[in-house]
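Comment on the following before class.
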Amino acid sequence: MATIPHDTGQAAAAGDALALVDAHGIVTGWSEGAGLLTGYTAREVSGRPVSALVDGNAVAVWRALRRGGGSVVAVRRRDGRRAELALRVCPLHGARGRRAGYVITAAPEDRDRTLGELAFRQSPLSMSVFDTEQRYLRMNDTACRALGVQEAELRGRFFPATAENAENADNAEHSRGFLHHLRKVVETGRPVHYESWTREPTGLRRHAWNSEMWPLRDPSGRVLGVALAAFDSSEQHWARQRLAMLNEAAARIGTKLDVVHTARELAELVVPRLADFVSVDLLDSVVRGEEPAVGPVGDDVELRRVAHHSRSAGVPEAAIDLGTADVYPPFSPPSRALATGRAVLTGTGAPDLDIWLALHGPRSAKLREGDGEHFSMMAVPLVARGTTLGVAVFVRALTTQSPDPFDQDDVSLAEELASRAAVCVDNARRYTRERTTALALQRSLLPQAMQAQAAVEVASRYLPALSQAGVGGDWFDVIPLSGTRVALVVGDVVGHGIHASVTMGRLRTAVWTLADVDLPPDELLTHLDDLVSHLAADESTVAGAVGATCLYAVYDPVDRRCTLAAAGHPPPVVLFPDGTVEVIEMSAGPMLGVGGLPFEATEVALPEGAVLALYTDGLVEARDLDVGAGTAILCAALAAPADDLEDVCDTVLKALLPERPADDVALLLARTRALDAGQVAVWDLPADPAVVATARQNATEQLARWGLDEAAFVTELVVSELVTNAIRYGGTPIQLRLIRDRTLICEVSDASSTTPHMRRARAYDEGGRGLLLVAQLTERWGTRPNSGGKIIWAEQTLPDH
């Protein structure tokens, strides 16, 4: 046993007296503080029995002190005065647990209740002192309460012996780590920090502990023991956990504007951190995206299961399949939560829960399946903006490993999570409603059925965007024109949502109107550009929100040529009958709405059987796909073997869009047809009234060759009137053309750009009745401009058609 050096300034400064004695009570160490109290120096007392300093029955006093604890002892100072000292003896153990001596601390009797001692005893921290062999030396009141024992029961006992009866995994793990850190302090002589969990003796509550351990040294620096201060940080820990979960909820819930996906995110977030099983049920109107009824729900409320999640594989607790509706009686926790708008906390043994489960046998069996008979439950309403959307049910199984039922802190956390999820669900519901409306409007504005025409065979696809921005304004059209020609249109309105769909509908109507006038593609886009500019300037339209791209193509199966013009739109791609694929080189032109810039027309020859692909940019452009690469994939997909155009459409979409696109996609495929020479008859006519009879004769003979004698009478009248008007009001060159297809078309062209108008002739007028007669006898008639003037045409329905 080493002696305490004479220089004990630290002990003296602390105001304490310290003496070391061996197992026989012989003084081996003496601090300066002891000298100040008694007047004896270390040299004077070293080697002497400590009992020699006692004033009274020294043997009895020494025996009492060795039994542990402390008491007031009278000592005789060196100057002869008697002093009352408060002595405390702590045993020291050496090898193999043998008692090697004692540490005696002394202070004047009136200092026994000093602030230091009171601070140790009354500290809210759990404080303990251990010797180097991990035996208890001292414990304060908080430590005793935490362990549920008195200090005297543990003093001198080896720590592992006191922890052998740990009845749960938390306490056992805490004990192993605690002992390891105590030994580490003794071995290294350095302080350590230790975090652990324990359970109360009742096993109903977990505690988080932050422990600080540091070595106790004698004046020579030797480690005499380990001091410990532990803080019960359970409240702070759970507060941090709740805050962390709320922060995570802000990032993980509502990542998509989808009602079911949002409910699933809530369920996956809280399992297993808050509950062992969670289910989310919503009103049917919410699932459909409709506006829920305002006010409390009915007594027997029907809810549809949209999400559930469990810490057990296969979700064995679920008594209702996803997508299935169930009726909740008014006394059930979910129904009560919906009726009151507040969370309902219940559990095994609650009358309302027992009755509900008794009436619903499968639910009772499922809840108890796998985790025992006891559980705690919270039913939390999903309410957003004053509207009830559904309910989330949280279930926690109460087992020996996890016996804590839900408490009010859990209810507050669940309500906050449910509130955040409800807002996201409501946002998704509103988005679903708007998107459904926009999509219905969009589809109603798109072609429902292609009008009959003979120029091309068509197939099309329209895919709405899987985008939170909403449905876009992509469209396409196939418009029959005079002379068996056909117009192919594809366009894309800037923006998404109902506004884009409405704008698309207005542009589509305008294109049909302008196509009926039979304007060339570049002129049609010029007029359409003016319309978009007017829409953008309209006071009811958000500035800058209107803009569009468009491609307009006219194909003539007679001369097998296609004329195209674009307004900021991607060029079409052509698959030729020999298998080669080309992108048509043409001027992209400005977007519609820019104004002041010309549009250029491009004319290409298309053989019979060529496939013309018109599309919007959403097909060939994406976040990870540039236009060049997308166009190359489109060309390769078009060249792939396919039975018909429908298969070609599927091949193209599969190659370019393995998933739902981020932007709207419109695709229009047209395979060209051609009229052979035997279906067209052409005559050039001089500007001589006498040629009218010849024109009638030529038409009659041609109809006879075609086997259309029944149409001869009407055709003669039409040819006579149209040729006469061309000779009288037009100019050379004059040409008559008959086209036999699904209908019989009579066309007369002249060099005048003046468009004739049908009028009502007065009773004594000699003329003015010709066009009225043509309109009455034919299916339809009209005029269109051409490069040299105009063409007047009339179309008759053939007897067999």
In short: The two ends are 125 Å apart (CA to CA). The longest strand covers residues 82-93.
